Amino acid sequence: MDLLDLPHLDVGPRDAMPVVLLHGFPLDHAMWAPQKEALQRAGFRVIAPDLRGQGKAPVGHGPATMQAQAADALRMLDRAGVRRFALAGFSMGGYVAFEVLRQAPGRVAGLALVDTRAEPDSPEARQGRYQTAARVRKEGPGPVVEGMLPRLLTSAADPALRAQVERTMRATPPEGMAQALEGMGERPDSRSTLAAIRVPTLIVVGEQDAITPTEAAKAMADAIPGAKLVVVPGAAHLTTLERPDAVSDAMVAWARSIKP
Ligand code: MLT
User: For the chain, what is the radius of gyration of the CA atoms?
Assistant: First the structure.
């Protein structure tokens, strides 16, 4: 497997517990900006990469599988001298987080699953991903932006926030976008990973999330022993930016509950 060097933000004291933040599709580490601030203020080290093919990260070859994305992230952490860490994944970042758990279970001290789900795509959804990937390679990011943007934020969201999110999506390299779509289409079923999780786990979901709905979050909370579920009112999928304080408060409390 070809591994890629991930550009990343790394802030806070070197001896504090690292909290690693994995972003969603097709976004970059900045979708965690409010939580990064809050976690850093609370004294944690925060590490937030751009995942392969997105943001400023290099684009790989072939589908950006969850396995490859997890291996990229683990290599970044090895190089940063980080052995054990708390791990938060948003949507696609959550799919990657399940894979990090499978590749390096002893290194994850706590888990936050934000607007994500454990089940794989249906055959129809997978087919749709491949079709969208082909369109993106021909037409650029338009098809993804048009299909996803209305579902990321509620209709009440600040237009400036919507414009900022759209800019990030449109700045994603089309090949990186296509590879991530193919990688998500190929992702494995993570439901059997849930019952073995024995670290403090937080699950966050926007009340109006139509991409990874509240039922998927509740199913994960039921399957993970001791998991805490927070349903965020007034938010769709992109809770971290639409209701930043609710997500930050939940994540700081979660991080404080973790024994590194
Ligand atoms: C994301 O927000 O990362 C993606 O929408 C997840 C997905 O398409 O399954």
Answer: 17
Q: What is the C-alpha separation between 192 and 190, in angstroms, rounded?
A: 6
> Residues enclosing ligand 1, CB less than 6 A?
24-25, 91-92, 184, 211
| Domains of the chain from N-terminus onward | 8-256 (3.40.50.1820)
CB contact burial 69-83 (16+ within 10 A = b; e otherwise): bbbbbbebbeeeebe
**Atom 7, ligand 1: which residue's CA is nearest?**
92
Q: Measured from the CA of 23, which atom of ligand 1 is nearest?
A: 3
pLDDT digits (tens, 9 = 90+) for 151-200: 999 999 999 999 999 999 999 999 999 999 999 999 999 999 999 999 99
> Which of 29, 31, 184 has most ligand 1 atoms within 8 Å of its beta carbon, as the pocket-test mutant?
184
